[in-house]
Fold each of these.
Amino acid sequence: MRIVAAQHDPPVWTLPAAQVRRIAQALPDDTVIDARSPEERLAAFAEADVIISARMSADEVAAAKNLKWVQSTAVGVEWLKALMESGRDVLITNVRGVHSDTIAEHAIALVLALRRRLHVAAARQATRTWSQTELQEVRNPPLFESRPRPGYFDLVIRNEFTRPPHCLPQPSPSLASAEAKARKPR
């Protein structure tokens, strides 16, 4: 089998040459080609059975006569539109889930950055403005003391400030008593 690793899109993402060598070592009975330039891609695609890439142009699709499988290095496959529209019987797979942990950690980091107002701190730092008082004015309880607030996400999503008070979600009596108990000093 002839496998072409053609993921070289600086500055977005490039499959490192060391990883291409690793694929070749794992598949000693197959030919693995590292195609980095547009010319190398077009030439290598002509004999490829498998292509590892996130995109293919119409010219590259036309050149890839033996193609059986494209492993997209991206979650989305919209960059393979020319291949999908060609009507050819080619298996297209993606890397769904490969970045799930990283994305989840990034989302948590962004929430914490907003909670601690790091965007304000960075802006003040850039102008060399002392902002300790400003940043301490908004008191956030520690996360372990935080309680979900009924309707909080509705506030964010639907902007409930514009809704009449009788339409706002009301805390349930059991939740209100649990919050009152949690606030009592021990």
Note: The CA atoms of residues 150 and 172 lie 9 Å apart.
Amino acid sequence: MFAKVIVAIKLLLCVAALVALYFVFQFARGWLSDLDFSRFFGGTMVQEVIDTANTEGEDDMVIGTDRRISASQAHALMERYPQAIVLDVRSETEFAQERIRGARLLPGDEIYYRAHYELPDYNALILVYCRSGVRSQAAVQLLVSMGYTQVYDFGGIISWPYARE
């Protein structure tokens, strides 16, 4: 009888601990959602960099529902935010031949399976490119659908006028 009481008390303590953890996580989630991270990794600051980027000789592109920006806007973001992730969604062979300085390879056909591990911060500034802009557009749409919030497509490397490796 005494052993059953001990087991019941332990079970009750475990349930109480789980309920307490649940409320702690709910509080933390609410507190974190009140913070405005967009000032640092998106929203106003990113839009200010994009607005002031030199787009001379290029069509003006603005962040919209398609999340497309120009090469000069992407370059300005890379200079302003060195922690930005420059994501190449081409094949390994294409990446080995030529890439934008500091780019990280994540082939487009592997994004769905590897993005969670390769890109754990869903609020990170991610600038995506491919060869011509077709695969990068699809990759951006996929990443946004997966919950990434600051993802922008700047087209293809064939129209990139800046440094390459």
Note: The two ends are 74 Å apart (CA to CA).
Amino acid sequence: MRTLLAALLLVPIVALEATGQAPADSGRRSPIAAGIMSFIAPGVGSAYAGNNYHGAIHGSIALTLAVGGAVAAVADHCDGQDCPGQNQTAIVVIIAAYVTNQVWSVFTAAKDARAYNRWFEQPKKVARIEIGPTLQAAAIHGGATGPHLEVRLLRVAY
């Protein structure tokens, strides 16, 4: 089984290396892909969409609930005695909280991907700083001042 899983994971890598190129990245993030990633592992879709904070929050909650559920399940033993499940309520609450976090993570990842795409499509403002002497000569028409010579050492454009 491990060999089959390793082969399935290596096939795409080998195929990419055989072609010598990586898949084109448009820069946009798919909300569907982000949701699927977060369904598989809560928080991963938000990290894919560029929001590492949401990814860390959902991942931490999922990990904490998984460890708490495992501890509650292991602690619920009676050593062969006929006793009711003492931690059944805790386990049900932990499972409900995990499922809630997982659903919340899917919707948050899709929202993060849409927000990333809106940010990606906005025109970016660029600040430019020019340092050094710049000579600019211009004749001003219609004025009595004649030719104009301007010397600048620093120019900041935004």
Note: The CA atoms of residues 136 and 150 lie 5 Å apart.
Amino acid sequence: MSSPDEQGRRDANRSLIARFLSDVHRDIDDFFTDDAVKEIPFATFFSPDGGPMRWQGKEALRANAEANSRRIDWYEWRDVRISGTDDPDRFFVEASGVGEMTVGGVTRPYVQKEYYLIFELRDGRIALYKEIMNPLELLKTVGGEIVLPDLPPQEY
């Protein structure tokens, strides 16, 4: 059972996450710790070393947010479900998202049917923000081509 202090912290953290997800063009300073980390572990095709995409520190997060705001015309989270854990500073979010992205002068719809987000908070700010999504949807949106082997569907 949570202590009243833990429950208050859990409620405040949940509220911060809800506000964070309500505006994709948010101010980094309002939400993140100075040493915060954002990770997108499965969109490795955009990473210079083929590993998870990762930004650490407010300046890196700000640069990523500014780059995204130049590409993402609009985006909104939908069907957001925020789930707490035994730890009042750790949350999981299930959501979908829809918007438009312009890359190379071409505007395309950007839809993610399933997002899984992990948040770890410290002192009322986000210390870790991890996006788990279908990177193939992102690849299609930016104009990438997905080539599947010539196999019957049941063999996939």
Note: The chain has one domain: 4-142.
